[in-house]
Each structure stands twice: as C-alpha cells, then as structure tokens.
Description:
The complex is a heterodimer of chains A (about 450) and B (about 500).
Chain A: H1 6-21, H2 24-40, H3 44-66, H4 70-107, H5 124-139, H6 149-157, H7 159-162, H8 170-178, H9 185-218, H10 225-256, H11 274-280, H12 283-294, H13 304-322, H14 326-345, H15 355-373, H16 377-389, H17 398-421, H18 432-449
Chain B: H1 2-41, E1 48-54, H2 56-59, H3 66-75, E2 83-89, H4 95-109, E3 113-117, H5 130-134, H6 140-163, H7 183-195, H8 199-211, H9 221-234, H10 238-251, H11 256-272, H12 276-289, H13 297-306, H14 310-322, H15 328-343, H16 347-359, H17 366-380, H18 395-410, E4 414-418, H19 426-429, E5 438-441, H20 444-453, H21 456-459, H22 473-494
Parallel strand pairs in B: 1-2, 1-3, 3-4, 4-5
Amino acid sequence: xxxxxxxxxxxxxxxxxxxxxxxxxxxxxxxxxxxxxxxxxxxxxxxxxxxxxxxxxxxxxxxxxxxxxxxxxxxxxxxxxxxxxxxxxxxxxxxxxxxxxxxxxxxxxxxxxxxxxxxxxxxxxxxxxxxxxxxxxxxxxxxxxxxxxxxxxxxxxxxxxxxxxxxxxxxxxxxxxxxxxxxxxxxxxxxxxxxxxxxxxxxxxxxxxxxxxxxxxxxxxxxxxxxxxxxxxxxxxxxxxxxxxxxxxxxxxxxxxxxxxxxxxxxxxxxxxxxxxxxxxxxxxxxxxxxxxxxxxxxxxxxxxxxxxxxxxxxxxxxxxxxxxxxxxxxxxxxxxxxxxxxxxxxxxxxxxxxxxxxxxxxxxxxxxxxxxxxxxxxxxxxxxxxxxxxxxxxxxxxxxxxxxxxxxxxxxxxxxxxxxxxxxxxxxxxxxxxxxxxxxxxxxxxxxxxxxxxxxxxxxx
Amino acid sequence: xxxxxxxxxxxxxxxxxxxxxxxxxxxxxxxxxxxxxxxxxxxxxxxxxxxxxxxxxxxxxxxxxxxxxxxxxxxxxxxxxxxxxxxxxxxxxxxxxxxxxxxxxxxxxxxxxxxxxxxxxxxxxxxxxxxxxxxxxxxxxxxxxxxxxxxxxxxxxxxxxxxxxxxxxxxxxxxxxxxxxxxxxxxxxxxxxxxxxxxxxxxxxxxxxxxxxxxxxxxxxxxxxxxxxxxxxxxxxxxxxxxxxxxxxxxxxxxxxxxxxxxxxxxxxxxxxxxxxxxxxxxxxxxxxxxxxxxxxxxxxxxxxxxxxxxxxxxxxxxxxxxxxxxxxxxxxxxxxxxxxxxxxxxxxxxxxxxxxxxxxxxxxxxxxxxxxxxxxxxxxxxxxxxxxxxxxxxxxxxxxxxxxxxxxxxxxxxxxxxxxxxxxxxxxxxxxxxxxxxxxxxxxxxxxxxxxxxxxxxxxxxxxxxxxxxxxxxxxxxxxxxxxxxxxxxxxxx
Lengths: 462, 495
C-alpha cells in the first residue's frame, strides 16, 4: 500500500480512530495487526519471511543479554547477523551474483549458474538493517533488549517506517513503544502538516519530474547534452522529493500516533562538501553505516590509510545496499572518492558556506546521480559524452526547462526559507492566515498537476 | 471553541482554493486569447483566417498543437497566400459548449474557415476533470465530488481484492536447469508468444511441448495441437493448420470443450481464406455444441461488417439465433442482428429486434439491455450513427455538429469537420448529405498505417480515447497534414 493512494486512506482512517479509542497496550496490539495487514496487502508469504527475521533476532538478543560468556554472546550475535544478511543477500543479490559468476564461467567455457526467479521483498533492506542495529546495540550494551516479543515485533514492523525507513534505533524507538502515547493537539497538528507536505513533495514534485526523467533514460543513444543535463537536474529533485516525501509522510503518521520518528533529510542540497552532504542525506542510513561498518572497521582512529580504506569500503557497501547492479556500486565508489578527496584536500581549510560552493557541489552530486540512475555502464559513458561534447544551446526545448522550473520552484522557495531560518518546520510556525493561503496554493497545485495514479516510491523495493 | 476555530480556518482554506482555481482558469484563457490576438494584430487583408474549435486534443501540445502546426504547414507552401490559424480549443469542452460559444467566437475572430474536432467529451464517463481545474471551470464542489468518487472506487476495489481471497502471491522461487524447459514451460512459453504475437516461436514451443508428452498422457496433445494450428494459421500456412484442425475435430469427438475451441479456430481460418460457407458451418457447429457460449461469431460479424455485406450477415444471424434458447447469449447475438439492420438502414426492423430483446425476461445482462435501449433511441432518430460506436458519439453530438454547420453556413463560412484519429469517418460523414462548403477530414487510415509502421507511443501520449490518445508533436503533425490537404481541396473550390 502506498501512502499516496486512496486505498491507504481507507485503511488508515478507521485504524487511527480505533487507535485513539484504545488504551496503550491495546494500541500496540492494534498497530501490530494493522502493520501485518499493511504488509500483507503486498504479500502474505513475505510477511512470514519477516517473522523469521524478527523471531530469530528477538531470541538472539535475549540470549546475548542474559549470557556473560563472551563466546556465547558473540555466537548469538553472529547467528542474528548471519540470518539477516542471508535473507538480504539471497533475495536481493542472488541473481546479481549468479549473473556475474556466470559471466566468468562463460569465459572459461563452463556451464552457467542456474537462474532463479526471485522476487525482491518490499522493505527488506530496511528491516534487516534495523534488526542488525538492534542486536549489535544489545551486544554493545547500549540498550536493553525488548521485554516482550510484541514490543520487538512492533519495533520492526511499525507500518509507517516499514517499507522505506527511516531506520530507527532501538534506543530511541523502543521506549516510545513501551510508554503511553497520549493525544496532544500540537503533535497531531504537526503530524498532519508533515503528511501534507510529504504528499505535496511526492505527488506534485517527484511524480511530475519522473515524467521528464524517464523518457530520457529510456531512450537509446545518441543523446543531446542539454536534455541529459535537464534530466539530471530533474532526477536530483525527483529522488530527493520522493524519498524525503515518503519520510515526511512516515514522520507525519508517526506524530499523529504519538511517535517521534527521526528526521531523515536536512536540506542535503545546501551542503558544500561530501561530509556535510552525508550528514544531511538519508541520515538514518549514513549513521547506520557509520556506527556498524565504518567504526568497526577502525574509523579514523587507526591511521590515515586505514581510514581511507574504511571510507571506501563503507561507501561501496552503501552503494551496493541501494541495489544489485554495478551502477549502484559505481555510485558508492564515487561517493567514497569524493569523501576521501575532501578529507585530503580540505584538511586545513575552513568549511564556510557560499552559494558558489553549493552550486559546485550540487553538480558533483548530480554526476553521482547519473551513475545511480543510468540503466547500464554504457549509458553512463554515452550520456557523459553528450554533456561534454554534444551540447547544443539552440536545440533546447524551453518549455521543458520551464516545466522543470515550475515544479521545482515552490519546493526551492520553501527550502531556502527553511535553510535561512535553520528550521524545517518554519512554514508550520507562521501566522495561520499566511499558512492557510500557502496550503490552499499547494492544494491548487496538487489538484491541477498532482499525479493522481499512485506511482511507486523509488526506494520502495530496496 | 477549538472545533469552531478549525471550521473557520477550513472555510478560509476552501475560499482561498476557490480563488486560486478561478485565477488559474482566468490566466489560462487570458493567455490563450492574448496569443490569438497577437495573430490578429498581424492581420493581412488578404490572409485566410482559420479558427480551430475543439477540446484537449486541439489545445494539447503548446507550440506543437495541431492548429499551430497547421499554420506552419500552410504557410510553408509558397502558394502566395497567407494563413492565420486561431487555436480556440478548450480542454474540457464538449460539442454543446462549443455550440454555445460559436456565435461569440465568430464575432470575435471573423474567420473564413471553421474547423471543428469534438464529441469525445460528450459521452465520456469519468472525464479527466483535472484538466478542468486548469481552465478554472472546476469548482470546490466538483473537486470534492471527484475525491468522493475516487474514495468509493478505492473502497470497491479493496473489497473485491480481499473478498476474492486471492492475494497476489508472487512465485517464490522457480528453479530450472539452464537451457532446458519442461513440457509445462514450453506450453507457457507458447501462450506468452501467442500474446506477444511471435508466431514462429509459438510454433517452436508447441512442437517442443508435443515431443515431450508422455505416452500415458495423450490427452495433453489436444490443446497443444490447437496451439500449433493457431501458430501455423497466423503464419499463413492455412492448409497445414486446416489439416491439424480437422484431425483434432475427429480426435476430440468426446471432448466438447476442446471441440468448441477447435471450431472457433476453424471459423477464423475459413474467414482468412474467404471461404464463407465453411466459416458459417463451423460457427453453427460451435453453436450446436454449446448454445450458451457465443465465441467466434464476432469474427464473422466483423468480416461482413467491414465489407458492408449486411444482407448475408442478417440472414445468417437470423438462422443462428433461431438455434439458441433465449438467454444472455442469445441476447448478444440478437443485438448483433439488430445492429446489422440498423447499419443497413432498416430502422423499423432493428427497432423491433431491440424491443424484443428488452422484452425478454431471460435477458438480464445490463450491458445488452442498455445497448438495446440506446438502439431504440437511435432507430427513432432515423439511425444517425451505428449503435456499436456510441461509446464515442452520442446522438446529441451529431445534432450539435448539424447545428454548427447551419450557423457557419449562415455566416458564409466554410466548415471542416475533423474526425479523431483511429475513429471511422462514417460516424460523422453519414449524418450529412453532400453539400457545398462542408468538408470532412478522415484521420483513420493514415494514423492506423503510421502506428503499424512505427509504434503507438510515437504518435500518442496516452490512451485517453482508448484506441487513441492525445497526440505527440509527431501525431499532431500528421493530423495537421491531413487537415491541410482538405483545406487545399476546399480552397480549390472556393476561390
């Protein structure tokens, strides 16, 4: 079920009404049932798979906490990580692995690996990572394990963040599950605002930009440089709005129910360097990678060479996490190179803000998006060639550039305002009359140009 | 207190939204008028002014909309004449709204030629009202009612989905050693090749599957041979296909289900060979096996209709229905009979058949009954359009076209009525006796050929009209070209 669908509306409204009528423990049970239904609307079978992960991790975490033997603790930690990574590895990466191995076997004239017809379960990358963070945190004694199976189940399966994050940490989320969540008007209000803003980002900006981006990437070469550039600008905002929109809708739904879900994006395109970018983009994933990959690999405590290696490997894994294709790996490697280069070159300079830096860095980011979005390595080369050598100013379709401006301008206006006031909720805090006029204008844009057919979130099957 | 505050603020929100909707609409029409006025400003005394009226199909495309392209095509022709083409298309207009605005538009722009392409929105259920919002015709109530409709739709589809008890469970894993397919997989591949119209591959898979049938399961060969015969037929190998079919008929004497399908395949094959007698016989066999299923009759009806051979079709259908007991299936065939009579201009007889259908208790299919009701209406109007096409053209549409013609001719204007791509011109043309000053543009053949040669997406952006959609710039160019040809013809007569 997608948030921007009428199906979701008729699911959520009765669930929410019932939720507010129940007492705390029953609220949790209701949320578990609702979340199961929500996921089952996509597939019952894969709901069972999720239960396998949840059950394994629950028991492993309890064993880790109860035992004092380092070897036993390590063993259960290993079991939990192994189960989660196996599930992820099999369902997400088997075909990628098989295709590449077959390529090598073919080179040696050996029979290829069998091809499996594996479906990628929705949200698998998110819930397996969340599960791993839980068991590792229990192992590190950062958090106590969940008291009941139901509590842990809700932690993983809570439907607003189930399919595309944010990846929540047990330390912040479990206490919210176990404590009562009384109704507060202000919180409910903020939740509604966040949901509406997320919907606007998704339906007006992201889905309309997709219509500009998709034909360009679906076409075969040769490409025209200006068209490629236009598509890249459009994609940069499409992927941001798609994901930030979803995260905002998740946060909004959470707030309505009394949960505080972590912020996932902090105006990432205002970053002036890679390090800042990763502090602002997909925050729950980047912090996960930092805490569970980068730091265990040594982080920056074991010397420069080791640090660069850790960065490279972390970003490579980060790229691979996004999808089973070489273009994603390449994107991850590129991000790693940017981070390493920044560390070396900007070691002694101050990170001051300037619009020029923002623009330059933005273009470095969209080069990364080219790697991310392209259908194949071939397409990357052809498109780069087009931008560098085949840019024809006179052939530009002005109306398409105006369209891009039309969709991005309202978003940018709000974002500049948010940046200048350093407050993501600045619109929410305005005088009610001004807010009402702005909301009405956004509703007008949504009614007139909002893409009504629920298009899937880009990150849906990650 | 809080409730009052919420209500008050919601009211302000709705008022603001209404203001934006109206401002949006006003802006759109101001811009359009401004652009058209710019053209008037350069009015050349000897220029020929053309006004294009229509709906979103006329307005779609910005500088590549068909009127704009038409102007370029006409002016590129070095004929010495200058053309101005005004685009007065409006996204959600119907033939009625165009008629209502007609006098005003003529007075404002004083055209020499009027081009009209309308009718699609007249009978469209579930009109894309989003476009209405941009022209400011949408009002809050309208927007809320659409939201209500969408919610109802979603509730109905969710109910069906959950009650059908068949959640879409994807296949978990399906292992196959690389390169070798099982019998089942060959069969499935043959079916998917059939869907994809890849008949040589379909033949290969059918043959491969046949070779894998185990001796104790000979019954499995029948559906496979059916597929093989179908594949051969589609590749033009009629003799081989017919042979297989005839053998199958003999082999499946005890299997009426299979026989039914085999006779269906034979009907198609005989029609392809123009062997009408055999086709009719095969269809009768189908009806004899199962009068409750009407299968291949559609192919026969289509065959006759396309060749306008109404008499033989009528005779055959009369025989066919007499072999069937009354029920929904006979209702469907009787409908085909009535339609045939209607197209043959036998209005009284057609009306009789339609009334017979409506009078039958055993006919419960609402589609059939509605069709009959509309058919009776058309018969009483002198049968303006074939009943089967009424999804696109209502009686009112053609009436409105007639009124437009009368008004235009009263002003001494030349009328050009344009049919949508892929739709038959007969729907429009047959409603008018031959007359000076009226011309028709048939977009059917050119678009069909073009789409066959290239693909649908090169010419159409969507499926708004089911078989066609809003045109891409390329599609609009083709349309404009077709209109230009008719304009030259018209000018040859006028001047």
